[in-house]
Amino acid sequence: MRMDLDRSPGGPIVTGFSGGGFKVGDGAGGETVHAAVLLTPASADGWTPPPVEALTIADVAGLLGNTPEFLLIGTGATLVRPPVALVRAVEAMGIGVEAMDSRAAARAWGVLRSEGRSIVAALYPIA
């Protein structure tokens, strides 16, 4: 008998990149492509974000309800610092904020979810 450790985190996982967007697997074999996406451990929803420099807590409020460890922000093709007001507001809720380019953020999402970490993500389009 063979026993393998299941490292799949359950829920959505970014499986690749396509046309400037993200291929997101639903854990059941289906994939959806989103130009921009909001991710929780249970869902992946398409998103029409404002410019990074205009991002507010209202834009990501739906992600923060279950008090994740941190909010991962993928800022597009390059790293753009999110507004200080947003970072302070999220941190005041006891939630950390990590910003990086969207490709790195998508990879970090997979690694952190495979560790069972309670995180959420807002990923801007790559192109």
What spatial form do the alpha-carbon principal axes imply?
globular
User: What structural class is derived from the secondary structure elements?
Assistant: alpha/beta
In spatial order, strands of the major sheet run 5-4-8-6-7
What is the arithmetic mean of pLDDT? 90
Number of distinct helices = 3
Radius of gyration: 14 Å
- Structure summary, number of beta strands: 8
Largest sheet geometry: 5 strands, mixed
Helical amount: 10-25%
Layout of SSEs?
Blueprint: E1 13-18, E2 21-25, E3 31-34, E4 37-39, E5 44-46, H1 57-60, E6 70-74, H2 84-92, E7 96-100, H3 102-114, E8 119-123
Parallel strand pairs: 6-7, 6-8
Antiparallel strand pairs: 1-2, 2-3, 4-5, 4-8
Question: Mind explaining what this structure looks like?
Answer:
With 127 residues, the protein is of the alpha/beta class. The chain has three helices and eight strands. It has helices at residues 57-60, 84-92, 102-114; strands spanning 13-18, 21-25, 31-34, 37-39, 44-46, 70-74, 96-100, 119-123. Strands 5-4-8-6-7 form a five-stranded mixed β-sheet. Strands 1-2-3 form a three-stranded antiparallel β-sheet. A hairpin with a 2-residue loop joins strand 1 and strand 2 (21-25). It is globular, with a radius of gyration of 14 Å. The mean pLDDT is 90.
